[in-house]
Design a protein that fits this description.
The chain has 258 residues and is mostly helical. The protein is built from 8 helices and no strands.
Length: 258
């Protein structure tokens, strides 16, 4: 049992080392690379446009559930609902829109990246790139990283807005809160916006790096591609949770919630 635990810890550190190495190479080629023209725009369409409807529907339901449960609990403590919209918006901007939205985004984007790169590995397209003296990180990972950071952030912001509208509708229909009362920006600070935006950017980059690493590490045939896709989704979700803990802890000290 102890040897099994040791192997698991060693594998975890090895994965962390590979992710760090891939991230460093991605940043290098982001500045010095010669990737295919138009590849970033194509990846932006794949990550952004094709994820928008899924994200809006998902965040709409999540926003409605959170507003409903928040209203139920608040009703037991205070009869006044005048600040429920301000509190809800602060939670959404500071953490919930990015952290909750990134999880379904990881299933959509992460699975797609891992499956695509994994298929290229097993069909020897990645080996062909290396034979042509082209680094797969430059041609395959960097466009997906840029697209995931930029369009992932945009999609998460739009998803947060949809969640807020869904929460407003629930508050009006269930708790009779006027939309003008619910639309209260008094509790949102610049620090909240900065922290929420930083989380969106970080999560987008983490999804691309984790999924690309698992995709490029694929071996075997179609079974290996399926295994890599599963690991990419699980790893991306785990990375989001860990990063949320780290960023939220730092935010507590440097960008406190007032």
């Amino acid at each position: 049992m102890r040897s099994g635990l040791t192997r698991s810890i060693a594998a975890l550190f090895e994965d962390a080392h590979q992710l760090g190495s891939l991230f460093g190479r991605t940043l290098y080629y982001l500045l010095h690379g010669k990737r295919e023209k138009g590849s970033v725009a194509r990846m932006m369409f794949e990550v952004g446009n094709k994820s928008l409807l899924f994200m809006c529907v998902t965040m709409g339901f999540i926003g409605a559930i959170i507003a409903f449960q928040t209203g139920l609990q608040a009703k037991k403590l205070v009869p006044d609902f005048s600040m429920i919209g301000a509190t809800y918006l602060k939670l959404l901007v500071r953490d919930l829109a990015a952290s909750l939205g990134a999880l379904p985004l990881a299933t959509r984007v992460g699975a797609g990246i891992a499956a695509e790169l994994g298929s290229m590995v097993v069909t020897e397209q990645v080996d062909a790139l290396r034979m042509c003296a082209a680094d797969p990180v430059d041609y395959l990972v960097v466009p997906r990283f840029v697209a995931s950071v930029v369009m992932g952030t945009v999609v998460l912001i739009i998803g947060g807005f949809v969640a807020y509208l869904a929460g407003m509708a629930v508050a009006q229909m269930v708790f009779d809160v006027n939309p003008h009362t619910f639309t209260n920006l008094s509790m949102v600070t610049t620090g909240d916006l900065t922290l929420g935006l930083f989380k969106c950017i970080t999560y987008g980059g983490a999804i691309a790096i984790v999924s690309s690493q698992r995709g490029l590490a694929t071996f075997g045939g179609s079974e290996g591609v399926g295994h890599a896709t599963t690991e990419a989704v699980v790893g991306s979700c785990f990375a989001i949770i860990v990063l949320n803990l780290i960023i939220s802890t730092l935010g507590y000290f440097f960008v406190p919630a007032l």
